[in-house]
Amino acid sequence: MNAADTGYIIICAAMVMLMTPALALFYGGLVRSRNVLATHMHSYASLGIITVLWVFVGYTLAFGEDVGGIIGSLSYVFMRGVEGAAAPAAPQLPHTVFMAFQCMFAVLTVSLISGGYAERIRFSAMLLFSGLWLIFVYAPMAHWVWGGGWMAKMGAVDFAGGAVVHMASGAAALACARALGPRLSLDQGIVPNNLPLTLLGGGLLWFGWFGFNAGSALVAGTLAGHALVTTHVASACGILGWMLAEWKRTGKPTTLGVISGALAGLVAITPAAGFVGLLSAVLIGFVGGVVCYGGVLLKSRLGYDDALDVVGIHGVGGTWGALATGLFAVASVNEVNGLFFGNPHQLWAQFVSVVGTWIFVYVASRVLLYIVDAAVGLRVTPDAELTGLDLSEHNERGYAL
After folding, report:
1. Which end of the chain is less congested by CB atoms within 10 angstroms, N or C?
2. CA-closest candidate to residue 71, choices 162, 163, 148, 132
3. Alpha-carbon dihedral of residues 387, 30, 139, 369, nearest 10 degrees?
4. Residues 289, 207: Cα–Cα separation, whole Å
């Protein structure tokens, strides 16, 4: 085990943990004032329930010994054999450090989904769905891509979570939006309650993303530095792509558009950060900003209420990033060539992983939502929704002005 690498990943894990409170700020500023605390609660509750489930059973299902390319064995259940050992997936790290780093990814992914059901889900339903989703959706996805499952065996690559985190959260958010239906008073327009809060959260997400992407190298070396630079450049170009598209369409650029573009660029580069060159990252980020802006506009045409644009940013951006990896990956960065560098199979593997992720996560999420609805009921009553979830679900107010 290497002390420098261990210290580096401990810092990266802390940065990724910060992304969940940052997401609470980002999402909390976008909802109406009567739901600001309930929206924060979704992220903070995920830090609790997902961490405990990850330690008990989630980690072993994701990173235990491969069982048929589908799921991990129970070799690490309740952390058996983890403490004091080196991580099999990263022998330079203590097993506990690798487990904790991956735990932060699981927490953030579940928190991201909350943007699809914001302002209308029962808190008990949110807790039950989140726990079931970690075990039956996230853990298999993480195993398929990072734990030696069928996607990895096929040759698909995902540096930091384009499929496992972003496409998966986007597909699950779409399932939630479809299952719960649109918010009441949606036709009257929804105005964010605090855009400066959203901008602060977005800036903190950008900071945490350096730990998210660069930390996925799992060593404090050249690859980590490369991933950090491609991450930052793609995010900057995502701002430009979204801003120019919005400016062209509406005549005015907005601060919400700028921070959304930054996140779109970050999402798009996530699967590719450690596989593509710097100029490719420029293109991936810029196109990510444009296509994610288009993805957000599509929800009104397709008739689903993805309250905080998880599908448009994370689902669409993750899909573009995964396919772009199949186009632009270059072996001089990390031993993988894409289509433009003589390896058409890589694009095919990425395409199959995209289709497999969307179908599996959407269908599995709808099944889990059906079970949760039968058990505790998914949606609050109309009166509770109009009162606001802060009062009806938590007996609190976010603002007392």
Report:
1. C
2. 148
3. 30
4. 18
Q: Please report, for residues 88, 209, 290, the alpha-carbon distance to residue 287 in angstroms, rounded to integers and kept in the order given.
A: 37, 19, 5
Domains in the chain (CATH in brackets) are: 3-394 (1.10.3430.10)
Task: Pinpoint the alpha helices (H) of 54-166.
Answer: 59-63, 95-117, 123-133, 139-146, 150-154
Half-sphere exposure of 202 (CA within 13 A, CB side): 25
Q: For 183-222, how does the pLDDT look when each residue is reduced to its tens digit (9 = 90+)?
A: 998 777 788 999 999 999 999 999 999 999 999 999 999 9
How far apart (Å, rounded) are the C-alpha atoms in residues 346 and 118? Answer: 37
What are the phi and psi torsion angles at 107 (to 5°)?
A: -60, -50
Q: What pLDDT is attached to residue 186? A: 76
Q: State mean pLDDT over 317-334.
A: 98
- How far apart are the C-alpha atoms of 162 and 191, rounded to whole Å? 30
* Calpha distance 264→261 (Å, rounded): 5
Angle at 168 between CA 164 and CA 170, to 5 degrees: 140
Task: Output the pTM of the full model.
Answer: 0.97
How many residues does this entry show for the chain?
A: 401
CA dihedral 29, 30, 33, 34 (to 10 degrees): -120
* CB neighbour list of residue 133: distance below 8 Å, 6 or more residues apart: 110, 113, 172, 365, 368
